[in-house]
What we know:
The chain is mainly α. Helices cover about 70% and strands about 5% of the residues. It has one domain. The N and C termini lie far apart (about 55 Å).
Amino acid sequence: MITLNLLIFLPVVSILFVAFAPERFAKIITLIISVIAFILSVLLYIKIDVGNPEFQLVSRYFWLGYYDSSIQQWVSYADVKYIVGIDGVSGLLIILTTLLFPLSVLFSWQREYTNPKLYFSLLLLLETALLGVFCSLDILLFYIFFEVTLIPVFFLIGIWGGKDRFKASMKYLVYNLLGSLLMLIAILYLGYAGGDIVNGGVFTTDYMKLRNARISLSVQQWLFIGFTLSFAIKSPLFPFHTWIADTYANTTVGAMLVALLIKIGIYGFIRYTLPLLPDACIYYAPVMSILAACGTVYGAILAMKQPDMKRLLAYSSVSHIGFIVLGIFSINEEALSGAVLQLINYSISTGALFLCVGMLAIRNDERSVLVFDYQGIAKIMPVYAFFFVFSAVSSIGLPGLNSFVGEFLILMGSYSSTIVDVRPYVIISTTGVIFAAVYMLYMLRKVLFGSIENERVQNLKDITLRERLVLSPLAILMIIIGLYASFFLRSIQPVADDIVQKVKESQKQQVVQKLD
Length: 516
């Protein structure tokens, strides 16, 4: 029987096969396991009712407790359980995660790594951690998987990164550990406060219980800060973004980092902050909208100034994330649906761009990814140029491709929000979207066109069949989402409607309490 537990733990258990197999088979085993995980995720997604916003395929196991034979039942020290389940949103994110992993393994195929067993084992550990994040229905369990993602990324950067890999890996670890510590404090306090309300005074981290707890606004405000700082750093949201450029400039798994790790910060806002702290979200919505608007413009301006393509894409990520966060804290059904869809789009488009940049870096022995060093390569790498241009125009929201739909829904929903007035910030953020076209087209012009001035460029080979197989599924998804977004929105919309409706109900209850 296919279960979520099988999907979550298949990659980490498979590390045993990698460990005992010959080195040359490490990448083959990892590829096979990642493909199986993708197939399992699709089969599980088919089993759920996407029109139902409630969690499905739920599994529960006692964790902190023991079996009392005298009463013949389990007794918990605290209401902390292993609970996993999915809905339409987490189901889509799981499929996207399991799709990007085999593509990332294929991308890594042609490189020679020192200690390949360790490298591919870390990839499998990262996949389990990410799947656990999207399936967790206990906030302490979510925190554990959230933290586990730090371990493989720290070593992937520190061992196989660029010349400043030690600095980049330590910066990544310190920033994210600090944010996670604040979230842990918030989780513990929420467990006691929520347990007093919905669990008979017993500490609980059960997400489905806590989302029904009516916690006072003053307590929610402090909890919001703890959760938000952690998610803002992980996202990264301006001004908590300063680790991202060094991290992406010194990693060989940049595509995976940008496409997968950033998702869990945004997912935290959607899954935990809005449903658990609705009153605080309304209270802080103007502040979050200001940060989002500033990040959208600030990230775009910095991207325009970058000669290094990895850093350019890193700062473009800050800009994109700002736009998504604006959609989330507009607290509007259409805007939230657009934010979720745009998170998927962002993972696809920017992930493809990082893969394209990585392909150039491999051909140049990781010596440089400066735009000026590759001028005119469209003449000698036409297939590569096609994928690079296609991914870039997808990222900037060309009508007919994926990002346009998400951006349109965010703009439309944010501007018509009735809970918070974010219209001024929508106008400001729109300039960031315009700037995105400027820096992307600038990069394309410098890298692809013009006369070839670097002798090394003349000897470059066009992308291989394997590299085309890596990029093609992403390009196909860009078209499918752009032309048939309703297939994805039918999974997203019910969940978004349910979350926003609960925030509105909380707002009405708060108004009634004030009148009383």
